[in-house]
Structure formats: C-alpha cells, structure tokens
Design brief:
alpha/beta; Rossmann fold; seven-stranded mixed β-sheet; 18% strand; globular
Length: 251
C-alpha cells in the first residue's frame, strides 16, 4: 500500500541541503514564502531581495528571481527594482540586525514613502551571522556576545526596538503584523499574514511588513525545543503577536 501525503514540497523550493543551524527558523519561512508565491501564481512576476546575514543566499532555496543586497540596503535595492519594474512583486527578506540597525534609515524612509513593497522581517533578537552580538531587538536581560551579563538599559544599552509599532504610525504603511513560527498554529498564522502582505502589493495598497519571531538556538545556546518555547514564554512578552495595522494607503 502506497503512503499518502498531506503535504508536499512546494515546486518553488529547491531540494537542496540546508546551510542553516539545527532548529533555525529560516527553513520554515523559506517554505512558507515558496508556498505563497505558488498560491498567488507569482513565480514569473516576483523578485526577492536578501541582504547580508544568515539568509544572504536565500536564492539557493527559491526557484524564482532574487537579488543580493549590501547589509541594511535591501529596501533601497527593492525600491529601485520596483520603480524600474512596477508590475513585478518585489519583497525583502531581512533579519533584525539588518532591518532595525544598519538598515533602519532605509526601512523608515521606504515605509514613509509608502513604497508598494512587501517586507518579511525575521526577528531572532540577535546578530546570528556575525557572532551573536546584541541587536536592536535583544531583550532586557538577554545574554549575547556583547552583553555577557544581559542587556541592561542602565549601562546605556537601550531597550528593545519595536520597529513594527513605529512603522505602523506612518501613513504610507498599510499593513503591519507580528507572528511567530513557534508552533503549527502560529506557522499557519504567519502564512496568512505574509500572503496578505503579498496581496496588498498586487492590489497596490502600499507598504506591508510582517515581523516573524524566529528561533536562533545556536546563539541563544538552547536546544531547538527550548528555543521555540523561549519565543512563547519570553519574546512575545516584549513583542506581542497580532495585526498592528491594516488599512489602505490613500495615494
């Protein structure tokens, strides 16, 4: 008797070995994005932009057009591509160190201009690729390579930056949501949010961003299971899940 499968690998996801650490969340998100682009029939109409970071070679996993960008410059590159090819669907795939630190100016101005783009913002509360330094999203008390005693605002290390809430205040932004991939229900919700963000672009509604709380077991020094639990028990206290803004930009 042949086995039956309820799920199959998306056609737009290459069958290659992963370079990510065990328990990393990027693999789940890569699959979701491939699924969504298939569902919306956007393969020949999509360009993804991935900057320097753990996911810089995302094009190894996706069977659609992608571009690399310098660290922090993904939304600037995406803006250029979109303006030259306005009929295409252009999205960025960025980590928190990239989007919320070195690329914060690009993030704020692209959103403030109401660029008709989609941004997938992967928040793992650290710099994963470069050694686990404190990121703008690192939690209070969280230990990193540069905060070995835990992030402490009294030491002028600041507070976790809530980029999604900040962007939601801008009139050029039409959709802001935060989700996680810590369990199947949250993965499904993440799929729905990202799909909505892609549909907003095809409907020319303006700038959309989905922040996804994602595990980094290696830097967090946790098992994959512990990392997923830490998202639910700690990260969501600082970064609550849900739709933050959902409106249509008046052009």
């Amino acid at each position: 008797m042949k086995p039956t499968y309820k799920f199959k690998k998306p056609e737009l996801l290459h069958g290659v070995d992963t370079h990510y650490c065990s328990g990393c969340g990027h693999g789940i998100l890569h699959r979701l994005i491939a699924e969504i682009i298939e569902e919306l029939n956007l393969k020949e109409k999509t360009i993804g932009v991935a900057p320097v970071g753990c996911a810089v070679i995302a094009y190894n996993y996706w069977d659609f057009d992608c571009s690399e960008a310098s660290h922090g410059r993904a939304l600037a590159v995406a803006t250029g591509i979109k303006r030259v090819h306005p009929s295409l669907t252009v999205f960025t795939y960025q980590g928190d160190g990239d989007l919320a630190s070195i690329g914060l100016a690009e993030t704020m101005h692209a959103a403030n201009r109401g660029e008709n783009l989609t941004c997938v913002f992967v928040n793992n509360a650290c710099y994963g690729m470069t050694g686990g330094q404190m990121a703008p999203t690192t939690l209070i008390g969280q230990k990193t390579a540069t905060t070995p005693l835990g992030r402490d605002p009294r030491e002028k290390e600041g507070w976790p930056l809530k980029v999604s809430e900040i962007l939601a205040m801008l009139p050029g932004v039409c959709f802001v949501a935060r989700s996680s991939i810590s369990n199947p229900a949250h993965v499904k919700q993440t799929h729905d949010y990202i799909k909505r963000a892609f549909m907003n672009q095809t409907e020319e509604k303006g700038f959309s961003i989905v922040e996804v709380l994602s595990p980094c077991p290696t830097i967090w020094q946790k098992t994959p299971e512990e990392a997923m639990n830490w998202i639910d028990t700690e990260m969501t206290k600082e970064f609550p899940l849900g739709i933050i803004k959902n409106t249509e930009v008046h052009r």
